[in-house]
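notes to self, project folder thing:

trying the whole complex as one job this time. last attempt i did each chain seperately and stitching them together was a nightmare. two parts in total, labels are on each line so i dont mix them up again. if this works i'll redo the older ones the same way
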Amino acid sequence: MLHGTTIILTSFAYLGLLFAIAYYADKRADSGRPVIASPYIYSLSLAVYATAWTFYGSVGRAASDGVGFLPIYIGPTLMIALWWVVLRKILRISKQNRITSLADFVASRYGKSALLGGLVTVIAVIGILPYISLQLKAVSNSFTILVQYPEIVMPAIVGAAPMRQDTALWVALILAAFTIAFGTRHLDAAEHHQGMVAAIAFESLVKLLAFLAVGVFVTFGIFNGFGDVFARAAAEPKLRAMLTPLEGVAGGYASWVWLTILSMMAIMFLPRQFQVAVIENVDEKHLNKAIWLFPLYMVAINVFVLPIAFGGLLRFPGGEVDADTFVLTLPMAEKQELLALLVFIGGLSAATGMVIVETIALSTMVCNDLVMPVLLRLRRLRLNERRDLTGLLLGIRRGAIVLILLMGYLYFKLAGEAYALVSIGLISFAAVAQFAPAILGGIFWKGGTRVGALCGLLAGFGVWFYTLLLPALARSGWLPIGLLEHGPFGIELLRPLQLFGLSGLDQINHAMIWSMIANIGAYIGVSLSVSASADEHRQASLFVDVFRQTGGSAGERFWRGTASVPDLHSLLSRFLGSAAADDAFGEYASAKGQRWPSDRLVADAGLVHHVEMQLAGAIGAASARIMVASVVKEEAPTLDEVREILDEASQVVVYSHRLEQKSRELEAATSELRAANERLKELDRLKDDFVSTVTHELRTPLTSIRAFTDILLDHPDVELEQRKKFLGIITKETERLTRLINQVLDLAKIESGKAEWIESPIDMKEVISDTLAAMGQLFREKGIKLEARLPESVSAVKADLDRMIQVMLNLLSNAMKFCDREEGWVGVTLLERDGCLQVDVRDNGRGISPEDQAAIFSKFRQVGDTLTDKPHGSGLGLHISRQIVEHFGGSMWVASEPGSGACFSFTLPVGAVAGERVA
Amino acid sequence: MSDFENKGQRFIALCMFGILLFNYPILALFNVPGTVFGVPVLYAYIFIAWAALIALMAFVAESDNV
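result (full assembly):
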């Protein structure tokens, strides 16, 4: 016999077991060995999606619509296929920005807007209330039915119980106490509830096993397998239509499609799904397993829905038993006490799991995004000065949990009886679907703005309220039913169920179409027509480009302001407690390689950002921004700072210019060096040439001397005449050798700069006259006519007298050598013009070819065919002469035409001793 | 990153494939009387296609060397 006491005791024992699991998981987490760090636990915790609605309601829906319940599970499967793209991004964003709830996510995305966070919270709470009431209804109904065992009586017939026995109220209160114990034992900066997740995963297992047990019992216990169930259903004329149900049911394919879309949104944006999938996620990699394990779970829990539904319809053909209760009533009808109790526990699992996670998620949102921002703005409360706010935060959350569950109970009392379980749940699905444009738009589209999101949410929620919630209240008798039939104030166009005359759709499709048009239209339209603030731009790029950022320093770049370290520390310890604050500061310091505690007083941007993120983990992004702003002097960059930045920039430009210049100079120096190197190589080559030429020139006279001395030595009987001649040649060659050596030495001296120059004012006219006088005898001996045309007087030049005589002797002896043999003539002229003295020495010899004129001043260059002509000198004379003239600032050149003699000329500047004239 | 993008594209393709499987007109093809191993055609189709889609998702999700 099942007794009320037995059921209650079993229920409490089960809840106690859950609490033990949660406690154990929390202890393990504290000691650093978390049990939930597993993809399997993560996947099972996601199955919190399957609530009492799934457990009892699926069969109810299947009993009327056949496969009509399936889109609610196929939709999530399709959405999960996109998780790799969508949820992974949301996970990354949430971890980087320490998001604590759905509302926090939206608020944070749109410039940490407290208003938006508050709106999302309000929508979520109001939207989820029907869903929570559904759980209360399921638990209290199943309890009421089970207590009647072995009779099967529907709760509606049992009638209203007195307050003391109002099961739903007790269920609400017990669940509130249980949730408070689970979720708000302490404040976690990361909002991780490891114990809760472990318990939820366990509950997912229990409800799956319980449902499978009923399924197996009905399919193989009452009937003989799937084939038998369906065959017997096909035999019933009433049920035959349900075997190909898509044409028969209201809405048909349109209903199917909208349910799919709706549940795709629900799996992402139900606060409890966001809580377990995003907030409680400890490792992104768990997604790999969850992507297929969670859909598999949904398949498993749905396999037996149709057999149970048909089984129920066949077993209770009179329709006296509500299809929503088939799961429980079938075992009861077959007198399976223990199975019925297991089913009740399974349903309790499904309901408590949903209620716990949902209310924790909602209470976090209410606390962080609704109450705290308001309290913090109320200066009268002086919250900024309170030492420790952790107690206050926990208090608000506990209050919110109780309040939400009581409101759920109230909704159950007001409107719950009028609808089936599934319809109640779908109203909530439609409410959370309103978040889709703001969130999905927010993570993929940078253009979405705060005002756009506000307008979209308000519009969508407004339509939802008008087309779904209002009719629910009206049908329950709390509003005049005429509102539905004739529209407000009798305006037919505004009838909530046929808005603007749109009819022929079921209620959910109708509401979804209008609310989505309003929501998406307002979101995009307003976003495009108002411009975003700097804060919004920053958050938009942080969210949309989350995969392009490296590390957690993304927020720092955008922050500027000053804050003191003690202020920040006391702020953090007020919300997290002193120990946690110390941990947070130590963590930051060690990450930056600094010491903590440090004696630094001014916090850098990174530390302020770190504190804000820690705080955001506890009280949400919007509140954290307000709190940090209260101790930080956040400022726009001043003019000086801008100037400084500009200065830095121009400094860089200057540096770069300098660098460019240096590199150009370096290039020039390099090419100079290269040229010098070339010259050095050339000189080296010239030196080699010079040495070999000199050696050659020395060998010629030596060979000749050697030859004649050999002759004289070998032939002592040479005639005297001959001997004299030979000795004459030897003398001459020796002289030539001496002269050559002298000249080489002379040249070496000049070229190395070691020659001694005795500079004094000299009179060139005198130099020429003296030279001519000295050479006169030689010319006369050779019969060469020597003519000189010298001016009366010339300016003095500064030069070395001996050297100038050397030059004149060289030129004259050359002229003598090369003038015509028969009628030799040499002319010397001196003239002064353009501040220079010019000396010309002409001869009437055969002249010099143009090719040779340039080369004639080189060392050892002798004009003429060296093979046939006997060399007439060392080949150094002209070279040395030119060096001497150039040393005194003059120049030397030759002008000649082959066949008509040559004219060697040189000039000397008179400037050095200007004005001094020599008589 | 290209591996990741590749994986993402495979999932998007799977999602589109799933939308095709569970929608008009493919669904209508199986909305006919008759049974497969005693199970109505439509129910059998939905569960088999569903399981196949999940198998494909498992394959893509667990493959590391995409």
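what i see at first glance: Confidence is low (pLDDT under 50) at residues 160-164, 551-558, 865-870, 913-919 of chain A.
need to look closer tmrw
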